[in-house]
Amino acid sequence: MPAPAVDHVHALPLHRVLGRLIRGGPLGLVEEAGRQAQGAVVRLGLGPFRPLLLTHPDHLQHVLRDGAENYARGAAMWNALGRLTGQGIAGEGPGWRASRDVLRGGMSSRYLQRTGEAIASSVEQAVEELAARARPEQPEDAVTAMTRLVHRIISPVFFGSRISAAQCDRLGREVATALDSLLWRMAMPFVPHGVPMPGDRAFLRATRTINRMLLPAIDTARRQGGDGADLMSGLLRGRGPDGRPLTDQHIGQDIVALFVAGSESSALTLTWAWVVLARHPAVAAGVRREADEVLAGGPPRPGHVRKLVFTRQVMAEVMRLYSMAWAVPRVAGQDDTIGRVPVPAGTTVVLSPYLTHRLAAFWPDPLRFDPGRFGKQAVRERHPLAYLPFGDGAHQCVGQAFFTMESVLVLATVLSRYDVHVTGDPRPRLAVALPPRGRVGLVLTPRDRSAQKILDGDVENPWPAPSPG
Ligand code: HEM
Fold it and tell me: How is residue 138 annotated by DSSP?
């Protein structure tokens, strides 16, 4: 679809923003803005803050690829986050470049080939721990269960054996607390840092605990020679823009940034995968069939990922509909034009993969779950920026290959061994990512090979037809 010919921006003034907020909540507001604009540029009237919402793939291509040098991070929201994640991988400029070089290499396909066996073995252990907890008499909260599972798998990748599983859980909790306590500052970025705000104390407490846990681990890694394959060792070998080693503070904040970027998004995406499979038993049956063929009753292996073609398509479709990156902000450095809309220097543009993934012109019947959309031919024929759950351009996710391996092996391992029961009525809720509204329960029982049962649930369809207008 060509970019819509917009001579003027599609405005969503404050009174309509509020009306939609009341009717559909924050996510309803975002969804309706996207539905009405269908790819046109939308100016959101949020009081003094009037960002442009971009969803059309041509516009995303302009911001993330063709004109990327004009669109840095640095949106006010990032300044608040910078108190937690620093100016390394979560920032811009030379500090970001130094971290990015290390982390991209540290999570590259070559690295995954070398460490794939260890990752697959972590997946198997994490799945068995999950099954031991998610029992019929006491369904596990799916988000908690998937968070724990993700921590088991990322902990050796981030820290080697320097941080125990329990410490990794604690670290994850403290990072989540620190992040939550920044929400006020992210929502009101114009308030100076010196002015006290709700959440400040919780933030300080959490960051102190995080430092108490991470700094000794960094010290241990340094004394061990810093030559491990884990990311913390990789960062110890990194060099800053001045050619000197990265400081402990830089490394610690990068690790926190990795948690922020990689832990919750992975856990929530896996949670939605179980919900979706419970709603689509035929798809679940297809994943199990493939797992039986490829794993053949054995443990997961890294080489299986390439062969689990349908499972990868299912995960891709889960990430289309439940794209954790619902808002990716950038700031225009100089005056520009997007479509035919003038973008003065200093304007915040908010890209929304979540909404781009719902544009009917690129995704016919967009709310229908259909892994077939990710067949080779269909992918080739689609606009390259119509699908970007991991972002695109200079800041594209460094954890993409890792998450693909992790998620595909988790689905295949669970379904080859267990029947899964999902309870709850989950619809996504707008937060930093998209957690389910309300509790989702998860029960795993050893697979009943005599029955047809695979995955069942008492979830309701969370995607009612969009309300007109
Ligand atoms: C479902 C899982 C994940 C999703 C949906 C996701 C999504 C994203 C997106 C959209 C971006 C781009 C942000 C931007 O352009 O500003 C990003 C960046 C990033 N992601 Fe992920 N991510 C996931 C998993 C992971 C994992 C597992 C890790 C690490 C182990 C990770 C580490 C990062 C880092 C470090 C960046 C920043 C890269 C940079 O700025 O250069 N992510 N991710």
Answer: B
- Indicate if the pLDDT at residue 449 is higher than 80: no
> What number does the ligand 1 atom closest to the CA of 396 have?
12
Cα distance between the two ends of the chain? 22
If we measure between CA atoms, which residue out of 314, 272, 295 comes closest to residue 414? Answer: 295
Cα-to-centroid distance, 265 and ligand 1 (Å): 8
Q: List the domain range (segments joined by +) for residue 118.
A: 10-457
- CA 242 to each of CA 90, 104, 106, 257: distance values in angstroms, whole numbers, following the listed order: 19, 20, 21, 22
DSSP code for 373: G
CATH number at residue 350: 1.10.630.10
Residue 182 neighbours by CB under 8 Å, 6+ apart: 80, 81, 83, 84, 199, 203
pLDDT of residue 367: 95
CB 100 near ligand 1, within 6 Å = yes
- In total, how many domains does the chain have? 1
Domain contains 5:
no
Tell whether ligand 1 has an atom less than 6 A from the beta carbon of residue 325.
Answer: yes
Consecutive H or E run containing 435: none
- d(CA 259, ligand 1 centre) in Å: 10
> pLDDT tens-digit profile of 158-188?
999 999 989 999 999 999 999 888 877 877 7
Q: What is the rounded radius of gyration, in angstroms, for the C-alpha atoms of the chain?
A: 22
Q: Decide: 322 in ligand 1 pocket, CB within 6 A.
A: no
